[in-house]
């Protein structure tokens, strides 16, 4: 799988921000854990990993046992250990925070356990009820649309229960945003694809280059499989709809991150003066990435006040540490281009309540603008399946606990259903949907 990647890519210039613990470091950190009986870190984890138990196993030297504890609740525990905002989840809930002492580095310990237990040469941690090549233990089969974290988690859980799981991915590379959208200082493409291969080894089949609605219809899928899981993530990047937006130099945030991660280095545009438009975590990631990649000037442009910024405080702090400049209560009104069409600036106006203030326009130089204001809706996919509805946010309507939609054979989870939450929430959605299917089928 990794052979299809260019040998030199821009993301490789961004090293791991939290390197893997050594065995000594892992044991020392694990020994600090108090193993709380009513552990707040478990409640803070969307996949309910038994954190004290896996940490205690690391401390006692049972690293494979620790990994099993993690994977029993979260089959993508390796990537979640690296991409989760632990500062506001498990680590942020550690009791040490209330005592003004450093919290247990749960994400680092989880990464250590999963990395050690799944490295080359280690025997499998799990054995599915069937090998995926002969008829499954239950003769049930599920088609999963999109090869991101929600579908991968769902497929893994289904395979462990003996069901056949086939994932259809319209792109060339599986993994969803773990592969193409996560900041490289958290997770590189090769590591995301290695996790996909680990899931695939359970007997999950992945068919790339297949788009539902183009190559296969929803009706065809329902005719061939017992259930469908929709885990397609979000749609294309939104545009601002202002003058000069179409053309070189202006790009959507998810598109820019994907290019930075998977395109050959020679195709990368040199970074000089960058404007990142938006205030969510994606915008903060892009701004920080550009700064760390050596851009001369990076400016985050946000239309509302600092207190309304959607991104996490710790991510904003990292942006500022990297040298990102923050402009709040300003609104882009036009992209400025020279007669040849080359981008050279962004026209801004002061904003009140997110709306422009007349007579306050001014220009800011930039030669790259990255628009990070969200993604489009998914009506076209929902229309493929009768009974599947879209809500006012443009998300598929699904029960958050079971993934059930208005069609009894169609389930959904991940960004397309929850609106764009963290990877760990997508994993929880996929896992819960698989468990609901298993329950309905009476499998044990």
Please indicate the count of domains. Answer: 3
Give me the CATH superfamily of the largest domain.
FAD/NAD(P)-binding domain
Q: Whole-Å distance between the termini?
A: 34 Å
Q: What is the makeup of the main sheet?
A: 5 strands, parallel
Shape: globular
The proportion of strand residues reads 15-25%
Mean pLDDT: 93
**Structure class:** alpha/beta
CATH class group of the largest domain: Alpha Beta
Helicity, as a percent range: 25-40%
Write the CATH fold name of the largest domain.
FAD/NAD(P)-binding domain
Detailed description of the structure:
With 444 residues, this protein is of the alpha/beta class. It has 3 domains: 2-7 and 16-117, Alpha-helical ferredoxin (Fumarate Reductase Iron-sulfur Protein, Chain B, domain 2, Orthogonal Bundle), CATH 1.10.1060.10; 141-235 and 376-440, FAD/NAD(P)-binding domain; 250-371, FAD/NAD(P)-binding domain (3-Layer(bba) Sandwich). The protein has helices at 23-30, 40-44, 51-59, 63-71, 77-83, 90-93, 106-117, 149-160, 177-180, 189-200, 218-224, 253-262, 281-292, 313-321, 379-382, 415-418, 423-440, and strands spanning 141-145, 164-169, 205-208, 227-230, 250-252, 273-277, 297-302, 325-328, 330-337, 343-352, 355-356, 362-365, 368-371, 410-412. The strands form 3 sheets. The chain has a 5-stranded parallel beta sheet, with helices on both faces. β1 (141-145), α8 and β2 (164-169) form a beta-alpha-beta unit. α3 (51-59) runs antiparallel to α4 (63-71), α3 crosses α7 and α13 (281-292) runs parallel beside α14 (313-321). The longest helix is centred in the C-terminal third of the chain and has 18 residues, at 423-440. The mean pLDDT is 93.
């Amino acid at each position: 799988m990794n052979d299809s990647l260019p040998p030199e890519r821009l993301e490789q210039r961004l090293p791991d921000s939290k390197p893997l613990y050594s065995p000594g470091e892992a044991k020392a950190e694990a020994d600090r854990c108090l193993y709380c009986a009513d552990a707040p870190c478990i409640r803070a984890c969307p996949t309910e990993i038994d954190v004290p138990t896996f940490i205690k196993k690391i401390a006692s030297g049972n690293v494979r046992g620790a990994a099993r504890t993690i994977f029993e609740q979260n089959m993508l525990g390796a990537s979640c250990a690296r991409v989760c905002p632990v500062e506001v989840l498990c680590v942020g809930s550690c009791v040490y925070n209330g005592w003004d002492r450093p919290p247990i580095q749960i994400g680092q310990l989880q990464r250590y356990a999963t990395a050690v237990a799944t490295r080359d040469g280690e025997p499998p941690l799990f054995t599915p009820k069937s090998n995926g090549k002969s008829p499954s233990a239950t003769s049930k089969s599920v088609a999963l649309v999109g090869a991101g974290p929600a579908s991968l988690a769902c497929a893994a859980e289904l395979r462990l229960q003996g069901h056949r799981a086939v994932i259809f991915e319209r792109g060339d590379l599986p993994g969803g945003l773990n592969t193409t959208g996560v900041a490289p200082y958290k997770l590189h493409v090769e590591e995301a694809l290695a996790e996909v291969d680990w899931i695939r080894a359970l007997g999950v089949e992945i068919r790339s280059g297949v788009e539902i609605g183009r190559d296969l219809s929803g009706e065809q899928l329902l005719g061939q499989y017992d259930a469908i899981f929709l885990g397609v993530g979000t749609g294309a990047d939104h545009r601002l709809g202002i003058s000069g937006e179409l053309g070189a130099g202006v790009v959507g945030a998810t598109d820019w991150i994907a290019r930075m991660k998977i395109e050959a280095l020679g195709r990368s545009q040199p970074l000089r003066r960058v404007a990142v438009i938006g205030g969510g975590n994606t915008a903060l990631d892009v701004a920080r990435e550009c700064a760390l990649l050596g851009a001369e000037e990076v400016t985050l442009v946000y239309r509302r006040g600092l207190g309304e910024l959607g991104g996490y405080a710790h991510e904003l702090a990292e942006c500022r540490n990297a040298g990102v400049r923050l402009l709040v209560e300003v609104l882009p009104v036009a992209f400025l281009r020279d007669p040849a069409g080359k981008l050279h600036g962004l026209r801004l106006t002061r904003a009140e309540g997110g709306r422009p203030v007349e007579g306050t326009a001014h220009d800011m130089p930039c030669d790259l603008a990255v628009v990070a204001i969200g993604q489009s809706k998914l009506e076209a996919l929902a229309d493929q399946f009768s009974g599947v509805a879209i809500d006012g946010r443009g998300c598929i309507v699904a029960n958050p606990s079971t993934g059930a939609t208005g069609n009894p054979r169609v389930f959904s989870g991940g960004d397309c259903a929850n609106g764009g939450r963290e990877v760990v929430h997508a994993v929880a959605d996929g896992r819960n949907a698989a468990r609901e299917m298993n329950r309905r089928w009476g499998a044990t």
